[in-house]
TrEMBL record:
Name under which the protein is recorded: 3-hydroxydecanoyl-[acyl-carrier-protein] dehydratase
Gene: fabA
Similarity comment: family membership: Belongs to the thioester dehydratase family. FabA subfamily.
Reactions listed under catalytic activity: a (3R)-hydroxyacyl-[ACP] = a (2E)-enoyl-[ACP] + H2O; (3R)-hydroxydecanoyl-[ACP] = (2E)-decenoyl-[ACP] + H2O; (2E)-decenoyl-[ACP] = (3Z)-decenoyl-[ACP]
Keyword Lipid biosynthesis: yes
Function text: Necessary for the introduction of cis unsaturation into fatty acids. Catalyzes the dehydration of (3R)-3-hydroxydecanoyl-ACP to E-(2)-decenoyl-ACP and then its isomerization to Z-(3)-decenoyl-ACP. Can catalyze the dehydratase reaction for beta-hydroxyacyl-ACPs with saturated chain lengths up to 16:0, being most active on intermediate chain length.
Subcellular location: Cytoplasm
Length: 183
């Protein structure tokens, strides 16, 4: 059979990009526009709610549980939108934004695996904050370690996650739950 008639042809450029092992900011914006995983599938939020600048590593193996991982980075600048309003004279990144970034990464992982549907956070088991992200922080690193991935009629990811500010782990979240839903 010639390659022209082969129904298992190599991935097109967008499909290949959807399964890369790292992503630039421009790639993340394409995901937010619905271009990375296809219309109706997992999308990241667009800025200002996109809470990381790049995904440095993503895999369906490895991590604390051997079921996959995602690592991402966010460059902190004193002029980020949330510092002037949270709180005036006492700027700090809202903890809920760091938590949302972890949910975003779990949902991205499900889309990256090729699962269809739109991502929605379903909950979290436990969250612990031991410090805060101030405007003096240079970089936040997020980590998500998948514990369970279900890809059937229900597409569900359960993961533990963490946030490090300039190398110090300051957030931990257990049992982050994200599902993909089809209309």
């Amino acid at each position: 059979m010639s390659s022209d008639a082969d129904t298992t042809a190599p991935q097109t450029a967008p499909e290949a990009k959807a399964r890369a092992s790292s992503y630039t900011y421009e790639d993340l914006l394409a995901c937010g526009r619905g271009e990375l995983f296809g219309a109706g599938n997992a999308q990241l939020p667009l800025p200002p709610m996109l809470m990381f600048d790049r995904i440095t590593e993503i895999s369906n193996e490895g991590g604390a549980y051997g079921k996959g991982l995602v690592r991402a980075e966010f460059d902190i600048r004193p002029d980020l939108w949330f510092f002037p309003c949270h709180f005036k004279g006492d700027p700090v990144m809202p903890g809920c934004l760091g938590l949302d970034a972890l949910w975003q990464l779990v949902g991205f992982h499900l889309g990256w695996l090729g699962s269809p549907g739109r991502g929605r956070a379903l909950g979290v088991g436990e969250v612990k904050f031991t410090d805060q992200v101030l405007p003096t922080v240079k970089q936040v690193v997020y980590g998500v370690d998948l514990k369970r991935v279900r890809q059937g009629k229900l597409v569900l990811g359960i993961a533990d996650g963490w946030l490090e500010a300039d190398g110090k782990r300051i957030y931990e979240a257990q049992d982050l739950r994200v599902a993909l839903f089809q209309s």
